[in-house]
Amino acid sequence: MESLFMSNTGGAGNSDQSARRGGGGAGKQESRVLDPKRLQNVAIMLKALNVTSDDVIRALMHGSGDLGSEFYETLAKMAPTKEEELKLKDYSGDISKLDPAERFLKDVLDVPFAFKRVEALLYRANFDTEVNYLKNSFGTLEAACADLRSSKLFLKLLDAVLKTGNRMNDGTNRGEARAFKLDTLLKLADIKSTDGKTTVLHFVVQEIIRSEGFSSDQTTAVNPGSTSKEQFKKDGLKVVAGLSSELSNVKRAATLEMDTLIGSVSRLESDLEKVKLVMLMKETCPDQGSSEKFFEAMDAFLGRSRVEIESVKASGESALQRVKETTEYFHGDATKEEPHPLRIFMVVSDFLSTLDRVCRDVSRTPERVMMGSGKAFRISAGASLPPRRYEQRREPSSSDEDSSSS
């Protein structure tokens, strides 16, 4: 700006500029310890904190109170390099000639291993948030596993898909399948019937809607009219559309990354070791009396954090084991082929999104008599349904046969 604009101003302006650069300003330039760009960054962060060096020193000496993770994170970013720290500590000139940001750092560095304390306090400030997130995430995985295995509607839908596929493949070597992989669910909306409009998933959904609607009001189903048919449809649609909410934990689990969660636990544990190293510095602290409160506060935190981390590790191991068991429940030996430990949730979550869309389509379709057999679906060799992967854990009852093929 000076080279482009200031040189064109009048003489008075140039005199003012020279005056500002002279005298005390020249002294400050000569006494500068930090690199100008680095100094500017520290000054900006210091202004954002809006605290004095006394405030920071008090926090580092006492180790009590919660000033928030952002406070300590900003302080940590100000940490000088080893070279800068030596320059600031060795500076013996006029303190008033230092830049305010340099004076701030020099004052803070009077506290023994000041920025090691900042790192320890930052870890403590973030600890509860990270632990709660990990516990909630592992809890979500456990709940998702339980929901998948206990949802009667989901199992009924799988049973209907299996029976529909067997009816469609009647007379072929796939016509008596007892299993299919859950990935097959994602293909149901792509296989269309001879009318070119109805998909396998539309057919399965309408059959389940009819079954659920009939179950919700069997008394009026004795002599159903058009009104009761529409009511059956609404009742059944409400049940089927509710599967997405029933499996909400599955959708949340699909957004998680097991590697990331395990990595977070490991980092939490390894960073705790750094806090322990800070505690060991107590023996070499030149002024142990004034730092006693800091060590007492951090020692109490260490005792609690060890227990919490062990609890989180146990939760993670339990959740991972439950996920493996659930994947084996649905995929059997194919579990070993899974490229992603939480893929089962991703597949079901994608399927639920498709199911919601199909339910909306069905709700807009006038009630009509559906074909009673899946034979009307045209199946290509590449899209045959189902492959022999998913193993049902129960034998379909005769009543189920009737409801899914009626």
From TrEMBL:
Biased composition (Basic and acidic residues): 388-397
Places the protein is found: Membrane
Keyword ATP-binding: no
Main location: membrane
Polar residues: compositionally biased ranges: 1-17
Membrane topology: Single-pass membrane protein
Keywords: Membrane, Signal, Transmembrane, Transmembrane helix
Region (Disordered): 1-32, 380-406
Annotated family: Belongs to the formin-like family. Class-I subfamily.
Protein name: Formin-like protein
